[in-house]
Design brief:
Elements lengths: L1 H17 L4 E8 L9 E4 L4 E4 L5 E5 H5 L3 E5 L6 E4 L6 E4 L3
Parallel strand pairs: 1-7
Antiparallel strand pairs: 1-4, 2-3, 2-5, 5-6
Length: about 100
């Protein structure tokens, strides 16, 4: 019984860690809709970069998004993309080179 409680507690904790308050989830895909893992999302002027997970998603703190005007999205085999923060939405699509 204690083991089951521990598993449930850990499961709930991991769910909370995936969606922190004050963070924006961004998914990066290719033009076919396939999720891209390991994509670098750089917040220009802040010295901070984030990388997408296996599902092509990364979480970026809102306060850091407010501290920059542009983001740079780059991955091997895909064209680099620069976007203004005001034009950033929850999904970014990269094109092959």
């Amino acid at each position: 019984m204690k083991f089951l409680f521990l598993l449930l507690t850990l499961g709930l904790t991991s769910l909370q860690a995936e969606a922190p308050v004050g963070a924006q989830a961004i998914q990066v895909t290719d033009i076919k809709g396939e999720a891209l893992a390991g994509v670098k999302i750089e917040l220009l002027g802040t010295g901070r970069s984030y990388y997408t997970n296996l599902n092509g998603v990364c979480l970026i703190p809102q306060d850091l998004l407010k501290a920059t005007k542009m983001v740079k999205v780059e991955s091997i085999s895909y064209k680099t993309k620069q976007l203004p923060v005001y034009d950033l939405n929850s999904k970014i699509i990269l094109e092959f080179r």
